[in-house]
Structures are given as structure tokens and as C-alpha cells.
Amino acid sequence: MHEVIVIGGGPAGATVSRILAENDVDVILFEKKKVIGLPVRCGELLPHPSEMRRLIPKVKDAEELIEPPKNTLANVTEYTELIDPIGNKIKSRFKSNIIFRDKFDQALVKGAMDAGVVVKCSSPVISVSGNGSVHVNDMGTIKQVKARVIVGADGPLSLLTKGFRENYEFSVCYVSIMENVNVNENVVQMYFGKEYAPGAYAWIIPKGKHVANVGLGIREHFSDSVKIKKYFQKFVEEHPIASKLLDGGRIISSSSKLVPLDGPFSNVVIKQGICIGDAGGFVMPHVGAGIPNALLTGRIGAEAILNYLRGKGKLSDFEKKWRKEIGPRLKNSLRIRKFTDLLLSNGSIDSFFPKRGQQYFEHLIRCDFPFPLRLFSFYLNLRSKARNLA
Ligand SMILES: Cc1cc2nc3c(=O)[nH]c(=O)nc-3n(C[C@H](O)[C@H](O)[C@H](O)COP(=O)(O)OP(=O)(O)OC[C@H]3O[C@@H](n4cnc5c(N)ncnc54)[C@H](O)[C@@H]3O)c2cc1C
Fold first, then answer.
1. Is there a single domain that holds both residue 67 and residue 40?
2. Could you tell me if 67 and 90 lie in one domain?
3. pTM of the model
4. For ligand 1, is residue 204 a contact (CB within 6 Å)?
5. Interior CA angle at 205 toward 200 and 208, to 5°?
6. How does pLDDT run across 318-350, given as a tens digit for each residue?
7. Is 181 in the pocket of ligand 1 (CB under 6 A)?
């Protein structure tokens, strides 16, 4: 019997368990991977702490949490560029830290272990029971382990949200690390266009001048039945701008994974515990970024669990707390995703991008949804409903 079981050793699981252990809570963390952080399934981009201050100024520790641990930083970029299918570009100042994601996850888990968390790798949890216990495969032996609280930090297809994912949208993402490329190490590039990344975007994120994280996302109802790897090959080999930067590049690792796109699941507090990070759907839907929210929901979750264990609060306080701290940004992000969906599905993106792109990119990337765009979105929504009725 432990006080808390954490399922998953990503940023969310490592953060919640570290903070709990620092407060003398007995925590055991189960991770199914043999080696934390591998393979890398991430664009490896974190907003710079100065950007976090702008994004969520009222959240006291956002800058501190987002600071990459020592020796996990690959590069710092100053700009983000958005590129349309015919090569038009808009650029905005947005400072980012580009990390080595495997080292980043490993450093966070080491922090948790140093605080006293028992970490069990190669130990997939296979089921969660209503009585506050889990069944875990510990080196081929199935064991039952009990705790007062169970934390789902096991990524997008969490065991704890199994019943709540009907009609919820995920995007499929493919990512690779490429060497021998020739990129601008100061600029993160995002490419959109249905030929390469239908419903989402492709990216080139420089880890240095000759190394980049290259990947893309696609969404089922925007794409043909083409496999994601084909879109990736097409982007790398045929995109008029990207193919030149990546020409001669060598892929040293590649992988794919799902990204939750509809915001937090309807029920992130359940009878046995709470869901944090991707397991709770805490990803910014308009860009698919989830590390900051994984860290933040890790900390917010730890606070709610501590109060609960000390008899000073309920687990459901987690819901109130995340809504207060990161709810407004998540809501805006979902609105922006729905707005860009409308632009993409009725073709207005081609006229919006050159006319209004530069004016609004800076807002949208920071999750601001200015009033004129809300009005425009409302109008597009009405128009698309009228078309569907006709
Ligand atoms: C291709 C791609 C690119 C991305 N790029 C970015 C980016 O640049 N910036 C950004 O902010 N976000 C990015 N994201 C999103 C980001 O990676 C996630 O939001 C983030 O990893 C969430 O952290 P987490 O701890 O909640 O979950 P994860 O990092 O998914 O960690 C979950 C852990 O749980 C383990 N696990 C799963 N099931 C079990 C089980 N049954 N038992 C035990 N362990 C289990 C997994 O092995 C994993 O280690 C990207 C996602 C993808 C797929």
C-alpha cells in the first residue's frame, strides 16, 4: 500500500511525483518504457520562460517549471515563421528553448527519484480497479498494488480516461531527428497546406545549424487515406522550401504518436484519482503543444492531492484549480483551432493568410483571440451552417 501511485514517467508524472515526495508523501511511479524519454516523440520546443510570463502572467511558478534542467538545452530560437503552400512567409518574434527531450524527461525523473519517489521502469500498468488498485506487469509477474490516490500521467490513451474518449479528436504526428541539414538556427518554421499536413502543420525546429527536429501532424477528416509517413516523405522531398533545407539530410530517429486536440477531457477527476498532462487532454489544441501544461497540471495536481491527503480538501479541487490557472488559455486555444478549421475547410485560408496573417499571427501563436477574429469566426460558422442546411 502506497499513498500515491503515478502511472507514467513523462513530464507530468515526474513533476507530480517529485512535488509530492518533497512533501513527504510515499509515491511509486510505474513507467512502461525501459529507458525514460526514448524514443523521442516530440518537436522538443518549449516556450522560453520570458514567453511563459507573457502567456500566463498570473501563474506564479510557470517560468520556473518551464526552465530546462541543466544539460538538456540544444538551442534557443528567437523567431517563428509560418509558411503557406506557395511559399509566402510571415514571421513573428517568439523566443523558444529547443531541448533534448530524452535528456529532459530523464532529468525530471531523476529529480523525482532524488526527492524519494520509487520509480519502476519496464513496468506497464495493465488495469486500474475501482477500489484504488492497479495491476502492473513487473518483469513478467502481474502484481496488484494499492494506493489512496492514483494519478493517470500515462499520455493520450490513458487507462483512466478510457470511457471518456468517444468522439474526441486526436491528431497523428510523425517526428524525426535529421542530421546534415542546412537550417536557420534562429527560426522555428511551421508549414501548413493540405498536401503536406492536412488539418495541422509540418515543422522544422532547429537543434543547431545542421540538426533539426522535423515532423508533421495530420487529421483524419482533413486527409485522404494516405499514411502519415507518405506525407512526411512528400514534405521532406517535395516541399518547394523545406526540401531545399533538408536536402541530403540523414534521419537518425523517427517515430509517431497521437496528440489530443479537443482540450481537457470531460472528467479529469475520477473516483480513484486524477488525470494530468496528455492523459487529461491538457494540450493546446491550436498548436499541439503539451509540455508546459504537463508540468503545470503536475504541480496543480500535486497541490490538490496534498490537501486531500492532509484532510484539507477534495480531489475535485484539481478541477477548480486548473480551470483558474490555465483554463482561459486552453479555452482560447480550442477556439482558435476551431477558427482555423473553418478557414481550412471553406478555403478562406488562402485569402486570410496574405491579407491578415501578419497582423494576427503574433496574437494567435500566443493564444490571444482578438475580438475582430472572434466576429469573423462567428460569421464563418454561420455561413458554414447555412451551407450545410442548403
Ligand atoms: C510528434 C509530437 C511532437 C510534439 N511536440 C511538442 C513540442 O514541441 N512542444 C510541446 O510542448 N509539446 C509537444 N508535443 C506534445 C507533448 O509531447 C506532450 O504534451 C507531453 O509529452 C505530455 O507529457 P505527459 O507527461 O503528459 O505524457 P507523455 O510524455 O506521453 O508521458 C506518458 C508516459 O506514460 C508512459 N505510459 C503510458 N502508458 C503506460 C502504462 N500503461 N503503464 C506505465 N507507463 C505508461 C509512457 O511510456 C510515457 O513515458 C508533441 C507531441 C508529439 C506526438
1. yes
2. no
3. 0.96
4. no
5. 170
6. 999 999 999 999 999 999 999 999 998 888 888
7. no
